[in-house]
Design brief:
This protein is 32% helix and 25% strand. With 265 residues, it is α/β, with parallel strands linked by helices. It has 2 domains: 6-123 and 237-262, NAD(P)-binding Rossmann-like Domain (Rossmann fold, 3-Layer(aba) Sandwich); 129-234, Dihydrodipicolinate Reductase, domain 2 (2-Layer Sandwich), CATH 3.30.360.10. The strands form 2 sheets. Strands 3-2-1-4-5-6-12 form a 7-stranded parallel sheet, sandwiched between helices. Strands 8-9-7-10-11 form a 5-stranded mixed sheet, with helices on one face. A hairpin with a 2-residue loop joins strand 10 and strand 11. The longest helix has 16 residues, at 129-144. The protein is elongated, with a radius of gyration of 20 Å. It starts with 5 loop residues before the first strand and ends in a 7-residue tail after the last strand. Bound molecules: NADPH dihydro-nicotinamide-adenine-dinucleotide phosphate and the ligand O=C(O)C1=N[C@H](C(=O)O)C[C@H](O)C1. NADPH dihydro-nicotinamide-adenine-dinucleotide phosphate binds at residues 11-12, 14-18, 37-39, 41-42, 75-77, 80, 98-101, 124-127, 239. Residues 100, 125-126, 154, 158, 163-165, 214 line the site of the ligand O=C(O)C1=N[C@H](C(=O)O)C[C@H](O)C1. Belongs to the DapB family. It holds the Pfam family DapB_C. One of its GO terms (molecular function) is 4-hydroxy-tetrahydrodipicolinate reductase. It is found in: Cytoplasm.
């Protein structure tokens, strides 16, 4: 059977992730890049390089009416992602969201909207297969080694902290261990923030440095032993097989899925 042709629009096509997504979509004959959504500040910019000949829009509405996309791939920023997702769902365009920063309440609201319309959507805080495995292994380890801390390390242009990946990891860990107050009960932070962000009894630490891409270590401690589970994305190509899979899976879903691990076969 011939595979269904999928019309894709990409929000943030000039960004670090957007540029990789453009290349990935153009390289897959099953996918067609039908539009780019750029920030209103760039509305006069014409597509260049790989975007040459691809229509650019500043609104999801205008793009959807004009080019009738099946899927919106979004790699923008935490300030615009909710509005983009709501518009896409309202217009029957399946969102595949890599942008991080949506709250649990916002994700729940978007899921409700998708279910009402019977529309597929995927929100994946991390599309790299190694990162998905790191999260799953950490969830498993937490059953047996409940003392845990997460250190996530990213490039210094990242807007949100902690990372979406570390939040998702924390949620998975919280599902598999009871809340446990770690560290000394009388510990005192001499410098604010020294112990990191608190989540369900454990801590998340965010490092931001030039030269980094996306990295995370989940550290477990037990009597006389430690366990480290680490993943490193060395470039942004690492995320693209996951984005490609999500575009295709979104076509067959009738609700929102949060986390790529939930659509892996
Ligand atoms: N899920 C995953 O696997 C991954 C997720 N991410 C997430 O993806 C997001 C993007 O990351 P990254 O590519 O590094 O960020 P960049 O800052 O490089 O790119 C963001 C792009 O979004 C554009 N943009 C801003 N506002 C709008 C708007 N209103 N409409 C359309 N486009 C807009 C920016 O354009 P302009 O410059 O004109 O403002 C810019 O080109 C982040 O949330 C990051 O955490 C990153 C890596 C992997
Ligand atoms: O901003 C990034 O770069 C990344 N963001 C995502 C996150 O917040 O987890 C995914 C990956 O870590 C890269």
């Amino acid at each position: 059977m011939e595979k269904k042709h999928i019309r894709v629009m990409i929000a943030g096509p000039n960004g670090r992730m957007g540029q990789e997504a453009v290349k990935m979509v153009l390289a897959d004959p099953q996918l067609e890049l039908v539009a780019g959504i750029v920030s209103p500040a760039r509305k006069d910019v014409q597509g260049e390089g790989t975007l040459s000949g691809i229509p650019l829009f500043t609104s999801i509405e205008e793009a959807s009416e004009t080019v009738k996309p099946d899927v919106l791939v979004d790699f923008t920023n935490p300030h615009v992602i909710l509005e983009h997702a709501i518009s896409a769902i309202r217009l029957g365009v399946r969102p595949v969201i890599g942008t991080t920063g949506l709250s649990p309440d916002e994700i729940e609201m978007l899921d409700k909207q998708c279910r009402e319309k019977g529309l597929g959507a995927i929100i994946a805080p991390n599309f790299a297969i190694g990162a998905i495995l790191m999260m799953k292994f950490a969830q498993e380890a937490a059953k047996y080694m409940p003392h845990v801390e997460i250190i996530e390390l990213h490039h210094d242009q990242k807007l949100d902290a902690p990372s979406g990946t570390s939040i998702k990891t924390a949620e998975l860990i919280a599902e598999s261990r009871k809340e446990l107050k770690q560290g000394h009960p009388d510990e005192k932070e001499v410098i604010d923030g020294a112990r990191g962000g608190y989540y369900n009894g454990f801590r998340i630490h965010s490092v931001r440095l030039p030269g980094m891409v996306a990295h995370q270590e989940v550290l477990f401690g037990h009597v006389g032993q430690t366990l480290s589970i680490r993943h490193d994305s060395l470039n942004r190509e690492s995320f693209m097989p996951g984005v490609n899979l999500a575009i295709k899976k979104a076509m067959d879903l009738d609700h929102l899925v949060y986390g790529l691990e939930n659509v892996l076969d």
